[in-house]
Amino acid sequence: MTSPHSSASSPPPVLAEVVRSGFTEGHHRGSLVLLAADGSVDLALGDPAAPVFPRSSNKPMQAAAILRAGLPLSGERLALAAASHSGEAFHLDLVRTMLAEHGLTPDDLRTPPDLPLDPVEAEAYLAAGRVREPLTMNCSGKHAAMLAVCVRNGWDTATYLDPGHPLQVLVGQVVAEAAAEPVAAVGTDGCGAPLMAIGLVGLARAFRTFVTADPGSAERRVADAMRAHPEYVAGTRRPDTWLMREVPGTLSKMGAEAVQAVALPDGRALAFKIDDGSTRALGPVLARALELLGVDAPVVSRIGRAPLLGGAAEVGGIRAVF
To answer: Alpha-carbon distance 185 to 63, whole Å?
Structure first.
């Protein structure tokens, strides 16, 4: 499968359309890349070589840097270090435990106060009369691991989010190495951590690197932990969890602003970004990309459903158009 890249001056192609009552009322544009098992580009839509902020799709690389820095994480703890967790009780309990194991408390987290990411959990949280906390922010597992490795190495915990901090310098090195391209820009993510920009081709390549890495390497250890404990990477009601649970060997991680990266165990991989950042188009685009990669599983249809309601009735939906 091949497709020409759009020019830099052209708008990205339409990846999904919004259809209500048989009328197309909107479009979601973006860029996408599919990699074959050997790492070659199988399909390119838009400009997947252009740098983007992968947002939380960078978390596997951040977790690998934490391992390389010497923190002996494994199992659920390592999966949570790479997580955008839903704020379910088992997520929050493990974050507290990870902090306490290194003499830390939730007060040491520099995540912004937030509600649980999962709407069901957020409603229950508010109904219980609770307020936004750094602990419930979806990146608190990653931050707990970052703080823990700082304690282990004697690094300053007050400045662990500074781009010049030894840990964040190492993160940048791991991102560039896994993506096989230089970091194009460094920004600040929603959680306050440094955020490294790479192209979607580089992002897909990085995920492929993690699933094909040698057993025992930092990259493979992260991939294996995420795939073994996907509910700690996302939550019980999240597509990343469904996909990793129902298609064995798959590594999947979404990011804010409608970024998604996936790698299959044989090295096939995908990455895309919806240009307007709308996550409502993420499921249909992901499902279509998985179909083009040859994934044939009931979970693909489940991920791809994005109905539109009129009153209480389904009157349309968002559908991929590539």
So the answer is: 20
E-assigned strands of 200-304? 251-255, 259-263, 269-274
Mean predicted lDDT score pLDDT of the chain: 96
The answer to whether the predicted template modeling score (pTM) of the entire model surpasses 0.70 is: yes
Predicted confidence (pLDDT) at residue 1 exceeds the cutoff of 60: no
% of residues, the chain, pLDDT over 70? 97
Q: What is the pLDDT of residues 237-252, one digit of tens each?
A: 999 999 999 999 999 9
> Rounded to an integer, what distance in angstroms lies between the CA atom of residue 172 and that of residue 175?
5
Q: What is the mean pLDDT of residues 201-226?
A: 98
Torsional sign, CA 193, 198, 201, 207 = negative
d(CA 51, CA 46): 12
What is the chain's percent helix, strand, coil content, to nearest 5? 40, 20, 40
Q: Cα separation of 159 and 249, whole Å?
A: 36
Q: What is the CB neighbour count within 10 angstroms for residue 113?
A: 12
Contact 142, 109 (CB under 8 A): no
In DSSP notation, 51-117 reads EE--GGGGHHHHHHHHHHTT----HHHHHHHT------HHHHHHHHHHHHTTT--GGG--SPPB--S
Task: For residue 41, list its beta bridge partners.
Answer: 35
User: Is residue 86 within 8 Å of 254, Cβ to Cβ?
Assistant: no
Phi–psi pair at 301, nearest 5 degrees: -65, -40
Q: Which has the closest alpha carbon to 240: 267, 265, 215, 263?
A: 263
Q: Rounded to whole angstroms, how far apart are CA atoms 179 and 201?
A: 8
Q: What are the φ and ψ backbone dihedral angles of 23, each rounded to 5 degrees?
A: -110, 130
**Residue 10 has what pLDDT?**
87
